[in-house]
């Protein structure tokens, strides 16, 4: 009796190892098999930063993209990305990942000539299949007010 239980444990261990190496998944009552992975999408936020009064492009403005917490709507101090405007005042932020439904986009002027501005953007990716949820692109333009002297 002891000998057969020992072989049974060895056989179960080998079978479990083989199934784990093969990535075995369950298919219950014709449903989609369980899969391992993370849903992801492609996100893009682009725009132009200009002087509100003269409509001149603001070169070198700092645009910070902050993901907002799904439940609280508060910007996380982590995972913020920063891009800068070119000589024409244009910027482009691109990211591939999951969980970026709402973003806080902040525009700051490192030269301290203009007041900072921000807005909230909701991303809604479309056109995906499987783990890929699709893509979304939003245009966010900023017209900055000059600071009082």
UniProtKB/TrEMBL annotation:
Gene3D superfamilies the UniProt entry points to: Carboxypeptidase-like, regulatory domain
Annotated signal peptide: 1-30
Matching PROSITE patterns: PROKAR_LIPOPROTEIN (PS51257)
Query: InterPro entries, per this entry?
Result: CarboxyPept-like_regulatory (IPR008969), Lipo_with_rSAM (IPR026403)
* Entry keywords, A to Z: Lipoprotein, Signal
Q: Which SUPFAM superfamilies match?
A: Carboxypeptidase regulatory domain-like
Protein's name according to its UniProt entry? Radical SAM-associated putative lipoprotein
**Highest lineage ranks of the organism?**
Bacteria, Pseudomonadati, Bacteroidota, Bacteroidia, Bacteroidales
């Amino acid at each position: 009796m002891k000998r057969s239980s020992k072989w049974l444990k060895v056989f179960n261990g080998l079978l479990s190892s083989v199934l784990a190496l093969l990535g075995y998944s369950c298919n219950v009552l014709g449903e989609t098999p369980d899969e391992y992975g993370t849903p992801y999408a492609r996100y893009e936020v682009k725009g132009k930063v200009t002087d509100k009064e003269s409509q001149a492009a603001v070169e070198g403005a700092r645009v910070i993209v902050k993901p907002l917490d799904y439940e609280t709507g508060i910007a996380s101090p982590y995972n913020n990305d920063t891009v800068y405007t070119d000589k024409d005042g244009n910027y482009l932020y691109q990211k591939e990942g999951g969980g970026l439904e709402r973003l806080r986009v902040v525009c700051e002027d490192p030269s301290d000539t203009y007041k900072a501005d921000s807005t909230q953007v909701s991303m809604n990716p479309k056109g995906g299949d499987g783990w890929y949820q699709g893509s979304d692109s939003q245009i966010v333009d900023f017209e900055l007010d000059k600071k009082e002297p």
